[in-house]
Specification:
Elements: H1 27-44, H2 49-53, H3 59-65, H4 68-82, H5 85-93, E1 99-111, E2 122-134, E3 137-149, E4 152-155, E5 164-165, H6 169-172, E6 177-179
Antiparallel strand pairs: 1-2, 1-6, 2-3, 3-4, 3-5
Length: about 190
């Protein structure tokens, strides 16, 4: 089940940025998801527990974006997730020093107030495959349940799919929006 959070007030400009998933398939969506995946890569492979923990929704973000019935459940879920930060740091930290090379996203959507416990509209991403290169080998790992808040995108839960070299999705590549490794990024080699 995908749950989402929002900033208090207007959806557009919540984090000072325009929405990136309002028009699936657009160049703006692809570029925005590419930048998001690059940021997730950097945070997750940092080996820094505080950076990985900061990816999760805060209690304030839950209070600002959800109806009262959803808040208690979400707060408890995130308390549980915070107990697993060390495991996520260990799994993703194996690829510290790697270079971000691409992404594969599924389920990127704009959701309205009232959907899934929301108190206002926001953006959500069901999952995004973060791809990198380390010591000449490609690796990848899924990050699930991303949501847009006043601070940008946050996670509802830590990645439960450990990143690994030769991830099967690198061959299947069944994405709604993607940038394959080797395609190059806009404005970068």
């Amino acid at each position: 089940m995908l749950l989402v959070a929002v900033c208090a007030g207007a959806w557009l400009g919540c984090s000072g940025e325009d929405p990136i998933v309002r028009t699936p398939g657009s160049a703006r969506t692809r570029e925005g998801l590419d930048a998001l995946a690059a940021w997730l890569h950097d945070e997750l492979v940092s080996k820094d527990p505080s950076r990985v923990s900061a990816l999760l929704l805060s209690d304030e973000e839950i209070d600002a974006g959800f109806d009262s019935d959803s808040r208690l459940v979400l707060s408890e879920q995130l308390r549980s997730e915070r107990r697993h930060v060390a495991a996520a740091v260990a799994a993703w930290g194996r690829f510290a020093g790697s270079r971000y090379t691409g992404f594969c996203a599924r389920g990127a959507a704009a959701l309205g107030a009232g959907e899934r416990g929301l108190s206002a509209p926001t953006e959500a991403i069901e999952r995004i495959l973060v791809v990198g290169t380390y010591s000449g080998s490609e690796w990848a790992g899924w990050v699930r349940e991303l949501v847009r808040t006043s601070e940008g995108f946050r996670l509802m839960k830590l990645p439960d799919d450990s990143p690994r070299e030769g991830h099967p999705e690198l061959d299947m590549w069944s994405c709604e929006v993607a940038r394959r490794p080797g395609e190059g990024r806009p404005g970068r080699p």
